[in-house]
Specification:
Glycosyltransferase
Length: 388
């Protein structure tokens, strides 16, 4: 739309939008800018970045105009958040198509993330003057989140209501704040530790969408009442990496990857979401199984989590740099790993006996790049020349 609106659900037909713009469920999570920035880091495609930047900026401003309270915090319905049936307060209220006058922590953190990535894009495109309002919004949202969402008693961050205070329902959506760099360093330990706490988020399959200590938690998943969802797991991993909790990110990634591989062996498919208390597909509250053959976001586990976390490969193509953070002890490798728009790499790491041992690697590439090799015992920068 000319005013910036993007409908969250479309049918493949003319005028196939499923919602009117001002329906509270008409938009989805504000993550387009993050996705496009990541695409740029993986490809170096600044031409595409220049094309999408004005569209993403207009969308961000549409949301700021029509999805915020006077203080600048954001509201969102359950459907718009993607977490359809998750309770938003201790009374168990579910707001699929409404917003109950609450400030949504996930929506506010996603707006902060979007504003930051738009500023990054503007710097690359030399359009910094175009994002002055977003640069100001970064400070406003960060202050709102830390003033209203953080509970000093437990260090967790919650949705909040102007009269009723914080919701006190621990949602995985709170961890968008890590990726958005909303949390001051001194508050990170008390917030992150819940991901490693067995009474809340450290379950047999990590990470449930709702903490186990909630009375609304469902051991079979119950959709967003405990279900383990690949996109939110990936968000948690990226957030932990952003704030330097790489060891915890690796532990969660291994747990998630091992579990989805086991379920694939058992069922010969990947699933929409998974159960948190057993190594199986998830089930809704009425007993209906999650959707099978769901290689949309569920492809994140066997692809992105495998490559970025188990294998530790993280490209930054604009700088011609590839980080290889090696934590596995078994031998492993990747052939035809894409780097940028034309680069292809073959990478192999030999088996090791312990984490401190320096990895013995082989890299063949058709392009010039800098490899930043990391392991528990040290790091090394290696210049890779084209070999074919």
């Amino acid at each position: 739309h000319d005013d910036g609106f993007i409908c969250r659900e479309l049918r493949p037909e003319p005028n196939g939008e499923m919602f009117y713009p001002h329906d509270p469920a008409s938009t989805g999570p504000n993550v387009f800018a993050w996705c496009e920035w990541d695409y740029f880091l993986n490809t170096g495609d600044d031409e595409r970045l220049g094309r999408v930047f004005p569209v993403l900026l207009a969308y961000h401003r549409w949301l700021r105009t029509f999805r915020t309270w006077p203080d600048g915090s954001y509201f969102q319905s359950g459907l718009a958040s993607g977490m359809d049936n998750q309770p938003v307060d201790e009374a168990g209220n579910v707001v699929q198509a409404e917003y109950r006058h609450m400030s949504r922590l996930d929506a506010t953190a996603q707006a902060l993330l979007s504003a930051r990535r738009l500023c990054d894009m503007a710097a690359v495109l030399n359009r910094q003057a175009d994002v002055a309002p977003e640069l100001e919004e970064v400070g406003v949202l960060q202050q709102l989140i830390n003033t209203h969402a953080r509970h000093p008693a437990d260090g967790f961050y919650y949705h909040w209501h102007p009269q009723n205070g914080r919701s006190l329902v621990k949602s995985i959506g709170a961890y968008w704040t890590l990726l958005a760099e909303a949390i001051p360093e001194q508050h990170l330990p008390s917030f992150v530790h819940w991901l490693d706490d067995e009474s809340t988020f450290k379950r047999p399959h990590r990470v449930p969408s709702l903490a186990k200590d909630s009375r609304f938690y469902c051991e079979e998943g119950g959709y967003w009442r405990g279900g383990v969802w690949p996109p939110t797991n990936y968000m948690v991993l990226r957030g932990l990496s952003k704030v330097g909790y790489d060891d915890l990110a690796y532990a969660i990634a291994c747990n998630h990857h091992d579990n989805i591989v086991q379920v694939f062996k058992d069922t010969n498919t990947v699933w929409e979401f998974y159960a948190p208390e057993a190594i199986t597909q998830g089930y809704q509250q009425n007993g209906t199984a999650a959707v099978s053959d769901f290689v949309g976001w569920s492809g994140l586990g066997p692809v992105a989590v495998l490559l970025e976390y188990r294998f530790g490969l993280r490209p930054h193509v604009p700088d011609q740099t590839l980080v290889w953070d090696i934590r596995e002890l078994d031998a492993f490798g990747v052939t035809h790993y894409p780097f940028g728009q034309d680069g292809l790499l073959d990478l192999h790491c030999a088996a090791r006996t312990n984490q401190q041992q320096k990895p013995q690697i082989t890299v063949n590439s058709n392009c010039q790049l800098t490899l930043q090799l990391r392991w528990a015992g040290g790091q090394q920068q290696i210049d890779i020349a084209p070999s074919h």
